[in-house]
Amino acid sequence: MIVTVCGSSRFKKEILAVAHDLAIQGNTVLAPTVFHHMEEEELPREVLLQLDNSHKEKIEMSDAIFVVNVNKYIGEGTYSDIDWAQRKKKQIYFLEQMEQPKQENAVEPESKVEEPTAVEEVNNESN
């Protein structure tokens, strides 16, 4: 299964750990490579837009996304990734079990988000 890992760039360590586990289980993993929040790096708006577009392309190439929602935190960018994945009919998994995601000013999801939460669940789907 091809899986794109999504989550706030402040969770670099957790994102890399999830990507590692998914890859070890035999999945093809696409993940962020720039963690500007974690590295306190100020990037120009154009670069941020380019990175976001590149991440959306990764989601399009994937069968599923895996949301790294540490302490159930999902920021604006990750909500956008979830919305994009739903529009593209991708499976959605969460590190920590979630109710239907809610956020002020967020677009209401078009369909119910699937509930599997563990990295192992993704591997079971690909077998």
Characterization of the model:
By secondary structure, this protein is of the alpha/beta class. The chain has one domain: Rossmann fold. 39% of the residues lie in helices and 14% in strands. The chain is built from four helices and four strands; from the N terminus they run E-H-E-H-E-H-E-H. It has helices at 12-24, 45-61, 76-87, 119-126, and strands at 2-7, 28-30, 64-68, 91-94. It has a four-stranded parallel sheet, sandwiched between helices. Strand 3 (64-68), helix 3 (76-87) and strand 4 (91-94) form a beta-alpha-beta unit. The N and C termini lie close together (9 Å). The model is unreliable at 103-117 (pLDDT under 50).
Task: Offer a quick outline of the entry.
By secondary structure, this protein is α/β, with parallel strands linked by helices. It has helices at residues 12-24, 45-61, 76-87, 119-126, and strands at residues 2-7, 28-30, 64-68, 91-94. Mean pLDDT is 82; it is low at 103-117.
Please give a handful of descriptors for the protein shown.
single chain; 127 residues; alpha/beta; Rossmann fold; 4-stranded parallel β-sheet; 4 helices; globular
